[in-house]
Fold this sequence. Notes:
Elements: H1 6-10, E1 28-30, H2 40-49, E2 57-59, H3 65-71, H4 82-85, H5 87-96, E3 104-106, E4 109-112, H6 128-131, H7 133-140, H8 147-150, E5 154-156, E6 159-161, H9 165-180, H10 184-219, E7 223-227, H11 241-246, E8 252-254, H12 262-274, H13 294-308, E9 312-320, H14 330-338, E10 343-350, H15 356-383
Parallel strand pairs: 1-2, 1-3, 3-5, 4-6, 7-8, 7-9, 9-10
Helix pairs in contact: 2-10, 3-5, 9-10, 13-14
Amino acid sequence: MPILTLPTWFAKKASVASPSKDRSNIRVGIPKVLNIWNTHQFWVGFLRALGIASENIVFSSDTSEEQGREFGKGRGTVDCCYPVKAMSGHYGELVFGLKKKINILLSPMIYSLPSFLRGHVADTLTCTRVMAGPENIKAGFLKEREVFAESGVTYASPFVTLGDRDKVAEQLYESLKDALELNLEETQKAVHAGFRALDSFTEKARRQSREILTWCAREGKPCVLVLARPYHMDTGIGHEIEADLQAHGYPVLWMQYFPVDEDLMDWLFGDEIRAGRIKSPFDIADVWTSSYSSNTNEILWGAKAAARCPWITCVIRYSSYECGMDQPTYTPTQKIVETTGTLFFKFGDLDSTKPAGSIRIRIETIVHYMAKYSPAIIQKKLALLPPENPLI
């Protein structure tokens, strides 16, 4: 039998591998904006695997008008998208507002996202305005002088396709090799660690969502599903509307972390698959053919899941002011949700100011309708599904 000696002779031994660099004292600041809200665990896992201490991975605080006035004043750029405009305050907070300075400001340009719908839709791309947001906001810190260099901060904005996992290591290596003195091998290992951390977090969040649905099923109680983009989890952008509703005793689920276990998906979508109306539980071609945007795809799928799940008796839809990606989806999502009598309420044109009075009135309206109609909605949707309930 031939013996392959060359790979054995010339393989890199552990003893001769280049020693890993000590990065434990490097402080990395990450603006808590846009799609960082649903990929943050990847970046934490990636940086920790490179030897950066957990306490040296610093996220900016939630968006607020005070943050924008103190740290972003005079550095705004022309953009009607408030979540993008708000980035200036996050950049300024990380550069000017920390007692212990950061060494690197990491603000990735995320072109595509990991999604449970990948393989069932055309693509999982991000909004182009959101993807290019870091370059847009960076300009406001360079228009008069080089603010980052003057502050001793290295600005890093890697272009990364998190939806195509095989490409990520090379992309991050090329972008960060100088700032972090990387080699390709350790970058590959760190990327794997990042995805493991992200997948672990997502699975845990989905398990907790299933536990909530199980409780609702056993107790016969209703809950609320939020259809929104990841950055609406930011208290300064989504304005904690769902928290006000939760204070009335209604559990709240976010579409991004809805459980996708096989038994639950078969219960909700199995009859339609066997009838040939859809190809899989994650097929949205029956309601949305232009399935390129990751967040848009998940919002449409979330509407389908909400319309079928008995204990989701109310859907709340968030959208920021003049969001061009959301506008074509308003009518389809509402029609899908209301097909089974599920309640639907939209909070559109959200901006920097929280209209506390009108939100309070809307919350009272939602609570009234949920209390009045939820029992009937639950029974109606249960009658449309097979009797074998996987949640009980």
